[in-house]
Write a structure and sequence with these properties.
CATH architecture: Alpha-Beta Barrel
Number of helices: 9
Structural class: alpha/beta
Bound molecules: SN-glycerol-3-phosphate, magnesium ion
Helix content: 25-40%
CATH topology: TIM Barrel
Number of domains: 1
Order of helices and strands: EHEEHHEHEHEHEHEHEH
Oligomer: single chain
Strand order of the largest sheet: 1-2-4-5-6-7-8-9
CATH class: Alpha Beta
Strand content: 15-25%
Shape: globular
Length: 248
């Protein structure tokens, strides 16, 4: 199978080094030599796509409220960097279009995690694949879509069957994982690092699928997962993990 992702993928950009899900995070990953990032995509109240992980803005901005109840203009007025470090004060929540432009400019691969606000699973997926269709050049490999939300995976599959999908799970048996990848015609399984066992890896690989895992910040764990056969690791500190894998 063609390489879906390089061995190390920056989580939410490079969440240990820059505010998560911001252009600064994407740039931090690229600046440290990392070739791919994972980011979380949500819909605003007025149907714009933005990068943010939580259902509420409270943890990662200077504001308060639910993303699904806020407009793009309201979200853009927030500071998504000062909470992380004073040097990042004034960093905005990026739109998906801004993030894609930066990702393409930097030549990165990307895993777009569809992270719907509750109740917006299908529409978030449909909007994301429509945006990918508009924003992605034909001669660049498409993004890898993933989601924990089955309704989002189903809607992405229906709307854009040709865009590669990964199933996200944090627990379960190899049989559960295989069934889920088959249901959504996925090319990869993304499991929580603690959930991967040699049995899972063997079953997923035997089915011709790629194995990805999150969130790996411990070098010894990274080496053990790679030895198990996991293809790529999503890390908050991707440069540290890449260095450990090179040395190990
Ligand atoms: O996509 C991998 C990982 O980001 C999934 O968990 O909660 O960090 O989005 P979370
Ligand atoms: Mg994520």
């Amino acid at each position: 199978m063609a390489l879906l992702m390089p061995q190390v993928v920056g989580h939410r950009g490079a969440a240990a080094h820059a505010p998560e899900n911001t252009l600064a995070g994407i740039r931090a990953a690229a600046a440290s030599g990392i070739g791919a990032v994972e980011v979380d995509v949500k819909l605003t109240a007025d149907d714009a796509l933005v990068l943010i992980h939580d259902d509420r803005v409270d943890r990662t901005t200077d504001g308060s409220g639910a993303v699904r109840a806020m407009t793009l203009a309201q979200l853009r007025a927030l500071d998504a960097g000062a909470w992380f470090a004073p040097a990042f004060a004034g960093t905005p929540i990026p739109t998906l279009a801004e993030a894609v432009a930066e990702i393409l400019r930097l030549g990165l691969r990307v895993n777009l995690e569809i992270k719907p606000c509750p109740g917006r699973e299908r529409e978030t997926a449909r909007a994301t694949v429509a945006a990918v269709g508009e924003l992605w050049p034909d001669d660049i490999p498409p993004p890898l879509l993933s989601s924990f939300a089955e309704a989002s995976l189903a809607a992405a599959q229906e709307a854009a069957p040709g865009l590669p999908r990964a199933v996200l799970m944090d627990e379960g048996t190899p049989q559960d994982w295989l069934a889920a990848t088959q249901t959504f015609d996925a090319v990869a399984m993304h499991g929580a690092a603690r959930s991967w066992t040699a049995t899972h890896v063997t079953a997923i690989k035997a089915a011709g699928l790629a194995c990805g895992t999150y969130t790996v910040n411990d070098p010894d764990q990274a080496i053990a997962l790679r030895r198990m056969g996991v293809d790529y690791l999503v890390s908050d500190d991707p440069a540290k993990i890449a260095a450990a894998l090179s040395a190990g």
